[in-house]
Amino acid sequence: MRTPIIAGNWKLNKTISEAVESVAALRTLVADVNEVEIVVAPTFTALFAVAQVLENGNIRLSAQDVFWEDRGAFTGEVSPAMLKDAGCDYVIIGHSERRQYFSETNESVNRKAKAAHAHGLKPIICVGEQLEDREAGRTEAVIRDHVINGIAELSADQILSTVIAYEPVWAIGTGKTATADEAQEVHTFIRSLLAETYSDEVASQVRIQYGGSVKPDNAAELMAQPDVDGALVGGASLEAESFAQIVKAACR
Ligand code: PGA
Question: Which of 2, 52, 67, 141 could tie 77 with a disulfide, CB 3.0–4.6 Å?
Fold first, then answer.
């Protein structure tokens, strides 16, 4: 009953013309897919142009970050309403690279998630432990901290249109994927946190993506896990062909 969601996080890649060319190719490759929600997240500068190519199609647009204020003296920031205006339905919030390099905290993630919802933008909230957390047996403690504080004060309706992306930091861009069992274990734990915060019924409807070195050859096995509802894909989303293969692996 949960529609799988496959999102491509392009990070700091592609000029406007490269982005347009890539989504035009992707649009053709996934034209017949309707059982999976497909999302691409280009850089801010390419959003509007990409939105034009995606019009009336089956691919949704996401930004990679957002600020929580609507307007004002916040040089360099982009508001939720501006992203809606550019054609976005989704926004990635709290990616580990933003936590690591740009001082993102659970508190800022939460403010951004609330602001996104206030403007009808659906957040994809990223959570995940570092390698040393996992080795020290702190995975669940870190995930609890990221999830509970990241979603604080979101209503049940808002959490239903929020996507949680579990991305173990040690698996991002390293070629090292969590095994399907490792992913399933953390996804079950995240769902239990949602049940504890809302209800079993609400928790059973929230989509939880896995991210971290998802490729065409490991996507099907990850997606076959009962609590893995899609993928947040970095490197393998840059080529339309490999991203389309991952999308197709999620078609059940
Ligand atoms: P990766 O990135 O697929 O290149 O590991 C995933 C992500 O950072 O979202």
Answer: 67
